[in-house]
Amino acid sequence: MVQTGEKLVSTASERYLLIYMIVVLVIITGLVILFFVVFQRRKNKLLLEQLEQQRAFEAEIVQAQTEAQEQTLKNIGWELHDNVGQLLSFANMQLSILKMQADASMRDKFKDTTEALSNGLKEVRALSKTLNNDVILNIGFEKSITNELDRLKRMKFSSATLDCTGEKVAFKDKKHEIIIFRILQEFMSNSVKYSGATHLNIQLDYNATHILITAKDDGKGFDMAVVEKGSGLINMKSRAELLGATLQLRSQPNAGVTLELNYPLKAVTI
Question: Cα–Cα distance between 184 and 190 in angstroms, integer?
Fold first, then answer.
């Protein structure tokens, strides 16, 4: 009986010891899991913070580049209007004086030169306005696009039109108008230089939550795999991202180019 009792006590002790070891093992395992979870959360938090810092840094770079470009364009606009414009005006005036002093048989020979000089002066003044952001803000976003389209139509296109749908809504920040106008201006400039297009159209679709801007030409198009690597598209996308907008460019050979920019109507500080 004594041996049986001792065996029972020994078995109970071993059972308690086993339970104790299991409990300790569970606690240790739980602590390890908790430590891993906490460590992983802190790691993810640090990675997110680094990513946000990187995004903020890139946004600051794009903003600085944009502001520098705008100031450069404004200076060029001033130079064109104040200096080049004045020189052309003086040359036109002098030519008019010579025309009046010339014999009647010679005056017709001045006609083409005078018209060419007058048209050149008109184009210089029109270009200077599109380069000055103060002028763009003063006359408005749509009017600025119309003026640029009219200028390009005189230079290149058979038709260059602006279509607006929906009830007009204001941009959340006036600076956004400038940046989007520059994106469209780069698109139009590329159409002039590379597309061989004869028709250009820009559509503004105003909605309660966003503004959808679509620009199209009927040019020769290109391979998207090539243009994705180009600095022009990267520059346009960087400017769009600065506003919280999305930009897509679609094209294929002999099918023209389409740009779509979706600008959300929410506050974005830049």
Answer: 10
- pLDDT for position 90: 59
CA distances from 174 to 76, 96, 110, 181 (A): 22, 43, 46, 11
Rounded CA separation 248/159 (Å)? 24
* Neighbouring-strand partners of residue 211: 206, 263
Q: Which of 147, 145, 179, 180 minimizes the C-alpha distance to 69? A: 179
Per-position b or e across 19-52, b if 16+ CB within 10 A of its CB: eeeeeeeeeeeeeeeeeeeeeeeeeeeeeeeeee
Torsions phi, psi for 166 (to 5 deg): 85, 170
User: Whole-prediction pTM value?
Assistant: 0.63
H or E element, residue 160: strand 159-165
H-state helical runs in 79-173: 85-101, 104-131, 133-139, 141-155
Q: Tokens in use for 139?
A: 């006359």
Predicted pLDDT of residue 7: 57
Residues ≥6 apart with Cβ < 8 Å to 99: 107, 110, 114
- Where the chain has pLDDT below 50, the residues are 2, 57, 268-270
